[in-house]
């Protein structure tokens, strides 16, 4: 196997994100951080091995439980003040509280899990973390070749 075979397929020039924020936004929308076109996920929380559009390797991510922790923090910071305000100001019937708050927490959690995981994978990709290091070096070389 040659080094060219080990090198990840480079996305088309001009499609690479200009900033970490752009890569994060692409990941949040479930898109490939490299090209912004291909779908990052092959199932609800399963990251595709490669981008179906540009071939960028995505299986290097190590998101693990971090997206779940972030979702807990986000949902907690949004929901707890709302619950406290409603329960002290309005004090709805107990059956409303016992159905509304868990349902709202479930909907928010399921709605945020994939976008947050996509953002975590995109940031790992942009930062060259874990196995993404080779892809980051290839991007830096491509940019340097364009400039020089
Ligand atoms: Zn792509």
- Sequence of secondary-structure elements: HHHHH
Small molecules bound in the structure, each named once: zinc ion
Distance between the termini: 29 Å
Largest sheet: none
**Mean of all residue-level pLDDT scores:** 91
- The count of strands amounts to 0
As a whole number of angstroms, the C-alpha radius of gyration is 20 Å
Helix percentage: 55-70%
Fraction in beta strands: under 5%
Number of helices: 5
Shape summary: elongated
The assigned structural class equals: mainly alpha
Enumerate the spans where pLDDT stays under 50 for 5 or more consecutive residues. 1-8
Tell me what you see in this structure:
The chain is elongated. Helix 2 crosses helix 4 (94-127) and helix 3 runs antiparallel to helix 4. With 148 residues, it is mostly helical. It is built from five helices and no strands. The chain has helices spanning 3-6, 20-28, 66-89, 94-127, 133-147. The relative contact order is 0.18. Zinc ion (ZN) binds next to loops.
